[in-house]
Amino acid sequence: MSWKKGIVTRFHSNMADVIDTETKEKLSCVLRGKFKMQKIRPIVGDFVEYTTDESDTGKIENILERKNILYRPSIANIDQIILVTTLKSPCVDNLIIDKFLIQAEKENMDVIIVVNKTDLLVTQEEKLILENFRAIYEDMYTVIPVCSKTGENIDKLKIFLKDKISTMAGMSGVGKSSLLNFVNPGLKLKVGDISDRLQRGKHTTTYSELMQFDFGGFIADTPGFANMELINFNADKLKNFFPEFSYFGAYCAFSDCSHIHEPNCAVKDAVENDEISLSRYNNYKKIYSDLKTRNSGGKKYD
């Protein structure tokens, strides 16, 4: 009996929903007993090898090695994070954006920043806000302004989503469900579905799910980062997760420069010369101070 390869789109109880990587057929698979004995189970995004019997019920024979894993909830083999934000209704603080990006950098994940609801940016001042946002982030990340009402740049976004395993992150209210419905109407998500389908409660099980695009590729229906607090971060290593610091940091007077207090800091000079965004640097200092405070039992760091 030959083994087939598939991807786990949902795991519940002792059953996994699997889509065959070649035929795209969806089937339910049970875990072999050896996995229970070893206390191993697949997670969403896992590539598995499986067999089928006469009833077309699958049995998972092997869980293939993961290239990465995100937690809360667990998703494996993610190719990229689609970070959705808005500059109006709601206006998402750049500090929140930078915390998302830091976590993505820590996991060595590619990020596509999607600015949704561009139709709301009608005045010259509002359009300038979008230009400034792009100026801050476009040198480091792909930034795609979109509108799920007018269809602006949806085709461009689909190019990045095609044949990839993506997870969608973003604060409540930025229009993730509406955006996915425009990208792939067949998903038929209700507004708020991205959050609601992640069940949290006393009598429910927390789970995540991969949804398949008609044009190829998968998207996780839950944010890749459920918690805005930076867990297990070392303040002294925080600078490693700001890509724009790396070039200038090599020219600092001190090899272990934190880019906060030290003299002859090339990063601070770059900020003064508008070569590094002041917004990003200020957020770096705030996060650095917060991490130092947390790790020192409440002592403040300027």
CATH superfamily of the largest domain: P-loop containing nucleotide triphosphate hydrolases
Order of helices and strands: EEEHEEEEEHEHEHEHHEEHHH
Shape: globular
- The CATH class of the largest domain is Alpha Beta
Q: How do the strands line up in the largest sheet? A: 10-9-8-11-13-12
In the CATH hierarchy, the architecture of the largest domain is 3-Layer(aba) Sandwich
Number of separate strands? 13
Specify the structural class: alpha/beta
How many domains? 3
Instruction: Please state roughly what percent of the residues sit in beta strands, choosing from under 5%, 5-15%, 15-25%, 25-35%, 35-45% or over 45%.
Output: 15-25%
How much is the radius of gyration in Å?
A: 22 Å
* Largest β-sheet summary: 6 strands, mixed
Short description:
The chain has 302 residues and is of the alpha/beta class. Helix content is 27%, strand content 22%.
